[in-house]
C-alpha cells in the first residue's frame, strides 16, 4: 500500500452546534491517501453529524475541513465556490449512503446510474459509457445482463453494490461511507465487506466510514476514532483501540460486543 | 376526399354565440341582474373578489353573471381586468384592530373581554333545504339589534390578551408603515419566499386548494397543532396618503375576515416556551379560507422555526406554485388544445419501434427455423 | 369578415394598445433584453394575467404585446396552421387591441407567434419569431425543484439530461424524444425549444430572425439572438436525427416538410399533408401537386383509391 506523508484531508477543531445542542465538538484529525478511518459510537454520539460536516453537506459552526485537491493543492472546502465544491463531490469524492435508495436514482437503469457521473463530467460517447458501466457491474459482482434493469428490481445487497459502483466510476480518491452494511442480512454483509476491502486495497482509496458495528470497523479500518456525546474520546490504530481500550466508554463498547 | 380544415374563425364565432345563448338560458325566465347577484349571492361575490384580488362588488357580480356562475371563470375575468389597471396609490396598512366588527369569536377562551359576537354565520344552522326559498317564500324576519354596540376597541386575543403575558411569539411589527411589501403580481417570485409574499399568494390562492392543505396539516402532514385564537369579520377603512397632502385620507370601507391561530409552542428548559402563530386575511366573510390560510401560513414557517419539512403544506415551493386556480385551470385545460404535431412525432416513433421489434422477431424466428433444419436430431 | 359577437374588448376603450399597459410592456422589454444578452437563460419576469387562460399562449401573447408596433404585420400559427382555433383567437386579439395588419403569409409577417412549429420557409433578419412555451425548464421532469434546477444551470451541471438520453437509447435503441427536444445554446445553457417537433430543431441553429420565448404561467422569458449556435443534445455514437416520412404531402407533393397524418376513414386509409398550411398553399399556387390533390388529372394513380371519391 502506498501512503504519502502529505495528508489528503485535514479536519481542524471542527464543531457543529444545533442551537444549544452539541452535534460534535473540537474534532481534529488527518487522513492520508489510501488510509481507512473508522468512526464508531452509539447512535446520537455525533458521528453522522461529523460525517456530514466533513463531506461538505453541512457547514460546521466552527473549524475547518481542508482537502488536497488534484489541481489547486490544499483548499478549505467551505471557502471554495459552490461550483468547485459540487465538482469535487461528484468526481474526486464519493458518498455511500446507508440506504442505497438515497444514493441511487431508482427510476433509471443500473447502467444509467453508473454512467451519470461520467456524463456529468462530459463523457458523450454512449458505447464507452456503457462499457464502463458494464465493467463496474462486473467489479461489484453483479451480472452484466442486469445493466438495463431498474435498481428497484435488485436485492438490498445488490443495490448497495450498485451504489458503490456508481460512486467509484470516476476514480475518486476519498470515499465517505455512512453505515454501508446497515440493514443488510449477516451473510450479505459479509460479502459486501469482502468486496469493499478488495476495492479499497486495489484502488488505494482513502475512506472515512461511520459505523456502530465494531466488527465492520475492525475488518475495514486502519485507524479508529471513538465518539461519545459529540466528542472524540479515544483514537488510534484499530487493533490497539479494540484490543486494549483505554477509555471506560470504549471498554464498555468493546465488552458489549464480546458478550453478544 | 380531404379538404384542409378552413373556417375555424366562423366556427369560433358561432361557438361564442351559442355560449351567450346558454348563458342567458330560457328567455321566458327573467334575466338575472348583477345587482341581484351582488346582494343575494354575496359570498360568491366576495370569493371572486378575494381570489380575483380586486375589491369591486359590482364587477365581481358582472364576472359571475358572465361566467355563468363558474367562479373560477369569474375570478379569471377579474384578474384579466385587474391587470390592466394603473396603480395610482398604495394604501396604508388597514387596521383590523379598529375593525367595525360584525362577528368576532375565539376558540381559546370561553369568555373574554369584548365577548363572543356571533354575527351572521351558518355555523349553527341545520342543513335542511328550506323549500320556502324555492317557493319565493315570505320575507325573512329582520334580526334584532343588540341593546348596546360592540366595544369600539375590541381587544385582540393574541396581541392584547396572550401577548400580555408574553405567551405568544411577537410578530415582527414593522414600525414603518411605508416599508415595502412584496407583490407577486408585479415582481417575479423567487424562492425562498418571505412571509409577505407567501401570505399574498395564499390570500389569492384557490379556496379549495388552501382548504385541503390546511386540512392536511391537521392530519399529520405537518406538525403545527392550531387553536383559533380569534376570528373577526367586519369592515375597515382603507386609507391612502397622497404625497402632496402629507396626511392620510379615507377612501372607503372594505369587508375583511381575519383569523389568528395559536399554534404549538416552542421553547426548552432554558428558553421560555411560547406559542407560535399563523395568520389569515381575506376579503369579505370567508372563515373557511381565513382559517385554512392561517394553518398553511403557520406550516410554511417551518424554515423560520427550524422544523423538519414533512408535508406538502410546509413546502413553500409546492404550495405557492400550485395555489393559483387561474394558472392551474389554464394549464390543466390546455391539453385539450391541438397537439397533433407532437402526437405525430410520437406516432411515427412508436410505429418505427414496432417495425423494429417485428423485424427482430422475424429474424429470430428465421434463425430458429434454420437451426431446427440443420440439427434435426438435436431436440431428442 | 364574419360579423362577430359582442366582444368586451371592442366595447371598451378602457384597454391599452396591445392590451398591456406601457409599464408592463417596459418590464417585459427589460426581461427580453436580458434574455437576448444571455442566450438560452431563463429570465424571470412578472407575467400578468391575460384575458386568455394560462397554457393557451399567455407568455407568447405578452412577448408579442411588448414588441409589436402599429406598423407590424402579425402572423399567428398553432400546429403550423393559421386557422387552428387558438391561432385564430390570438390573431383576433391583436387585430382588435393593436389594430395591426395580420397575414397568413410567412414572408409578409414581421412578427410570427407560434405554438409547436417553426415555419418551413427560411426566416429573415427583419422578422421575429415568438414561441409560446408551456414548461420552460428543460430539466423539470428530471428535477422538479426550481431552486435545484437554477443551480444546475448556474453550475452547468447537465449530466442528468444525458442520463435521460442514455436511458432512451438503452431502452429503445435510439433517443425517444420527439418534441421539446433539449438543445445546448451557444455552448452554455441547455434550453427547451418549446414543444416543437425535433424536426424543427435544426432551423433554430444560426437562424437569421430573432427568436423570443414566453412562458406565461411559469413567468419566464428566454431568447435566441439572430445567428446563435443551437445544438441538439446527443451522443457521439448516436447523433441527433430528425423525423422523416416515406410519404409526400398529399396536396403539394412536398417531401421536405413536416407532415400531419389525416385519417380518411375507419378502414385505416390515411394521407399526409404539410403541417405548415402557408408553405403548402404557396407550393400549390406554384403548381406543385401531390397524389391526393383534387385537380390531379384522372388516371394518375395513387396508393389510396378511396381518397378520390
UniProtKB/TrEMBL annotation, chain A:
It holds the Pfam family ABC_tran. GO terms for biological process: organic phosphonate catabolic process. GO terms for molecular function: ATP binding; ATP hydrolysis activity; lyase activity. Residues 9-254 form the ABC transporter domain. Keywords: ATP-binding, Lyase, Nucleotide-binding. CDD domains: ABC_NikE_OppD_transporters (cd03257). The keyword ATP-binding applies. This is Phosphonate C-P lyase system protein PhnK. It comes from Thalassospira xianhensis MCCC 1A02616. The gene is phnK.
From TrEMBL, chain B:
GO terms for molecular function: lyase activity. Keywords: Lyase. It comes from the Bacteria. GO terms for biological process: organic phosphonate metabolic process. This is Carbon-phosphorus lyase complex subunit PhnI. It comes from Thalassospira xianhensis MCCC 1A02616.
Amino acid at each position: 500500500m502506498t501512503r504519502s506523508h502529505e495528508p489528503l484531508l485535514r479536519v481542524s477543531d471542527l464543531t457543529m452546534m444545533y442551537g444549544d445542542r452539541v452535534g460534535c465538538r473540537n474534532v481534529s484529525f488527518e487522513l492520508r491517501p489510501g488510509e481507512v478511518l473508522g468512526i464508531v459510537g452509539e447512535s446520537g454520539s455525533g458521528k453522522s453529524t461529523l460525517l456530514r460536516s466533513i463531506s461538505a453537506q453541512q457547514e460546521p459552526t466552527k473549524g475547518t475541513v481542508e482537502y488536497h485537491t488534484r489541481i489547486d493543492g490544499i483548499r478549505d472546502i467551505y471557502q471554495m465556490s459552490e461550483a468547485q465544491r459540487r465538482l469535487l463531490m461528484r468526481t474526486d469524492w464519493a458518498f455511500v449512503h446507508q440506504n442505497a435508495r438515497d444514493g441511487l436514482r431508482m427510476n433509471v437503469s443500473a447502467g444509467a446510474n453508473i454512467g451519470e457521473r461520467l456524463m456529468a463530467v462530459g463523457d458523450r460517447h454512449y458505447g464507452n459509457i456503457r462499457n464502463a458501466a458494464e465493467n463496474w457491474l462486473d467489479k461489484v459482482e453483479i451480472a452484466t445482463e442486469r445493466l438495463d434493469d431498474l435498481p428497484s428490481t435488485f436485492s438490498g445487497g445488490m443495490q448497495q453494490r450498485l451504489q458503490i459502483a456508481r460512486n467509484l466510476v470516476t476514480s475518486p480518491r476519498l470515499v465517505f461511507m455512512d453505515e454501508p452494511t446497515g440493514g443488510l442480512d449477516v451473510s450479505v454483509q459479509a460479502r459486501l465487506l469482502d468486496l469493499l476491502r478488495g476495492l479499497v486495497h486495489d484502488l488505494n482509496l482513502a475512506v472515512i466510514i461511520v459505523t456502530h458495528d465494531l466488527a465492520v470497523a475492525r475488518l475495514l479500518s486502519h485507524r479508529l476514532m471513538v465518539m461519545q456525546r459529540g466528542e472524540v474520546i479515544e483514537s488510534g490504530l484499530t487493533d490497539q483501540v479494540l484490543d486494549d481500550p483505554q477509555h471506560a466508554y470504549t471498554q464498555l463498547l468493546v465488552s458489549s460486543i464480546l458478550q453478544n | 376526399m380531404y379538404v384542409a380544415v378552413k373556417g375555424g374563425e366562423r366556427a369560433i364565432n358561432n361557438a361564442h354565440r351559442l355560449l351567450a345563448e346558454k348563458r342567458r338560458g330560457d328567455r321566458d325566465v327573467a334575466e338575472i341582474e348583477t345587482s341581484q347577484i351582488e346582494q343575494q349571492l354575496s359570498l360568491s361575490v366576495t370569493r371572486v373578489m378575494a381570489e380575483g384580488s380586486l375589491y369591486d362588488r359590482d364587477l365581481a357580480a358582472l364576472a359571475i353573471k358572465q361566467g355563468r356562475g363558474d367562479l373560477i371563470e369569474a375570478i379569471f375575468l377579474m384578474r384579466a381586468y385587474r391587470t390592466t389597471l394603473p396603480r395610482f396609490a398604495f394604501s396604508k396598512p388597514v387596521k383590523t384592530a379598529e375593525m367595525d366588527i360584525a362577528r368576532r369569536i375565539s376558540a381559546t377562551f370561553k369568555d373574554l373581554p369584548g365577548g363572543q359576537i356571533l354575527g351572521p354565520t351558518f355555523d349553527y344552522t341545520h342543513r335542511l333545504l328550506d323549500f320556502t326559498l324555492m317557493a319565493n317564500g315570505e320575507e325573512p324576519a329582520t334580526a334584532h339589534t343588540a341593546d348596546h354596540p360592540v366595544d369600539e376597541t375590541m381587544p385582540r386575543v393574541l396581541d392584547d390578551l396572550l401577548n400580555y403575558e408574553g405567551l405568544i411569539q411577537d410578530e415582527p411589527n414593522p414600525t414603518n408603515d411605508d416599508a415595502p411589501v412584496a407583490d407577486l403580481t408585479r415582481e417575479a417570485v423567487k424562492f425562498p419566499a418571505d412571509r409577505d409574499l407567501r401570505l399574498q399568494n395564499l390570500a389569492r390562492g384557490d379556496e379549495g386548494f388552501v382548504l385541503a392543505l390546511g386540512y392536511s396539516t391537521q392530519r399529520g402532514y405537518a406538525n403545527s397543532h392550531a387553536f383559533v385564537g380569534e376570528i373577526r369579520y367586519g369592515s375597515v377603512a382603507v386609507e391612502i396618503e397622497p404625497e402632496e397632502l402629507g396626511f392620510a385620507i379615507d377612501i372607503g370601507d372594505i369587508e375583511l375576515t381575519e383569523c389568528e391561530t395559536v399554534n404549538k409552542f416552542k421553547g426548552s428548559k432554558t428558553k421560555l416556551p411560547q406559542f407560535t402563530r399563523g395568520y389569515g386575511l381575506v376579503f369579505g366573510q370567508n372563515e373557511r379560507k381565513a382559517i385554512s390560510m392561517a394553518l398553511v401560513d403557520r406550516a410554511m414557517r417551518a424554515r423560520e422555526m427550524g422544523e423538519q419539512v414533512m408535508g406538502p403544506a410546509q413546502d413553500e415551493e409546492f404550495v405557492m406554485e400550485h395555489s393559483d386556480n387561474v394558472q392551474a385551470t389554464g394549464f390543466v385545460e390546455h391539453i385539450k388544445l391541438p397537439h397533433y404535431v407532437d402526437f405525430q412525432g410520437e406516432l411515427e416513433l412508436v410505429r418505427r419501434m414496432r417495425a423494429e421489434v417485428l423485424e427482430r422477431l422475424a429474424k429470430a424466428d428465421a434463425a430458429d427455423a434454420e437451426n431446427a433444419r440443420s440439427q434435426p436430431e438435436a431436440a431428442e | 369578415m364574419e360579423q362577430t359577437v359582442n366582444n368586451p374588448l371592442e366595447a371598451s376603450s378602457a384597454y391599452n394598445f396591445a392590451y398591456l399597459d406601457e409599464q408592463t410592456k417596459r418590464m417585459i422589454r427589460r426581461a427580453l433584453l436580458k434574455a437576448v444578452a444571455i442566450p438560452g437563460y431563463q429570465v424571470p419576469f412578472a407575467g400578468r394575467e391575460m384575458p386568455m387562460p394560462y397554457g393557451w399562449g399567455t407568455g407568447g401573447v405578452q412577448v408579442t404585446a411588448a414588441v409589436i408596433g402599429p406598423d407590424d404585420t402579425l402572423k399567428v400559427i398553432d400546429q403550423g396552421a393559421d386557422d387552428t382555433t387558438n391561432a385564430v383567437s390570438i390573431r383576433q386579439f391583436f387585430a382588435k387591441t393593436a389594430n395591426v395588419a395580420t397575414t397568413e403569409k410567412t414572408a409578409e409577417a414581421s412578427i410570427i407567434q407560434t405554438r409547436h412549429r417553426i415555419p418551413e420557409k427560411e426566416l429573415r433578419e427583419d422578422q421575429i419569431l415568438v414561441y409560446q412555451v408551456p414548461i420552460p425548464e428543460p430539466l423539470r421532469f428530471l428535477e422538479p425543484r426550481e431552486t435545484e434546477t437554477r443551480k444546475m444551470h448556474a453550475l452547468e451541471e447537465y449530466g442528468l439530461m444525458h442520463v435521460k438520453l442514455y436511458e432512451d437509447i438503452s431502452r429503445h435503441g435510439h433517443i425517444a424524444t420527439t418534441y421539446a427536444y433539449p438543445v445546448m445554446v451557444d455552448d452554455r445553457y441547455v434550453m427547451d425549444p418549446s414543444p416543437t417537433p425535433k424536426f424543427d430543431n435544426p432551423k433554430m441553429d444560426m437562424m437569421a430572425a430573432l427568436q423570443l420565448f414566453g412562458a406565461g404561467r411559469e413567468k419566464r422569458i428566454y431568447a435566441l439572438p439572430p445567428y446563435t449556435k443551437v445544438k441538439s443534445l446527443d451522443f457521439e455514437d448516436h447523433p441527433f436525427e430528425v423525423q422523416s416520412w416515406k410519404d409526400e404531402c398529399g396536396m403539394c407533393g412536398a417531401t421536405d416538410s413536416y407532415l400531419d397524418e389525416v385519417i380518411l376513414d375507419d378502414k385505416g386509409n390515411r394521407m399526409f399533408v404539410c403541417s405548415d398550411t402557408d408553405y403548402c398553399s404557396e407550393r400549390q399556387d406554384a403548381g406543385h401537386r401531390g397524389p391526393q390533390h383534387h385537380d390531379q388529372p384522372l388516371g394518375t394513380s395513387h396508393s389510396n383509391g378511396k381518397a378520390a371519391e
